[in-house]
Structure formats: C-alpha cells, structure tokens
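Entry
Fold in token form

___
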Amino acid sequence: MRRLLDGLYNSTAALAAMCMVGLLVMVMLSVVSRQLGFNVRGTDAYAGYLMAGAGFLALAHTLKRGEHIRVTLILNALQGPMRKVLEVWSLGFASLLSAVMAFYSCRLVWQSLDFNDVSTGVDATPLWIPQLVMAVGTVVFAIAFVDDFVLELLGKRQPLSSSEMLRNE
C-alpha cells in the first residue's frame, strides 16, 4: 500500500512538472508570436490553466516531503502526549478540510460538465477540463492528509522537516 500511495504522489508531481513545462511553452509561444507579428489565441488562458494544474497537482507531493508551510511555534513548545494530541488533531482537521475541498472541486467539475460551461475567453474551453485537473489534485491531497493522519494515529509517521528552514541567510 505504501508503494502505491507514494507512486500516486510521485505521479501527480510528475504531472505538475509537465504542467510547468506546458506553462513555459505557452508563455514562450505568446512572447515569440507577438515578436513575429501574429497572435496565437488562448495562450494566456492555457497558461493560467497549466499554472493552476501545476499548483494543485503538486499539493500532495509537497505535503509528503514536508515542504508545506507549517506554523510549529506551539507544536515545538509541547512534548510527549500533548504534542501527539495536537498533531493528531491538526492532521484530522486538515484531513477533513481537504476532503471538503476535494468534494467541492469534484462537484464543480460535475456542474461545469452538466451546464456545458465554457470559458469566456477566445479559446472557449469547456471548463470541466482544467477543473478536472484541480479536482484530481485536491483528491490526492486529501488522500495524503488522511495517509498522514492514519500514520500518526498508528505511531508510524516520520515527521519531515524542510531543509529550507535550516538555512540562515
């Protein structure tokens, strides 16, 4: 099960990286087309979709690597059972919030599909397509939080700390 979950998190991270490459292509296409005197319609909208996709698809991987911003002032001051209680409560609440976010993201996709909602830009993209990427990212993010919650309850969670906070500049 661990390999399956880690594979899921790594797969969405790879998709997020592909979205970043696509974003670069859209921006470069927009810049080059303006310099050469022609216009490629929809590049700004697609760049926005790809940027959102990269952000949402990277959520779970970032969480599992300990790279999300956490305010640990109170947590670091606690020791023993109180620290565990606060950690379990925080992960449980985060699991609940991420599940709600995933539910409403999936609901938004369904409604956009049902209403045949399209973007108002010149590209007229069916909105369920970029919203589906957001929904996948939030569902995997919720899975990652539930994963951390269960691991914490079982005492098997290894708290990761970002190396970023170890640097003093």
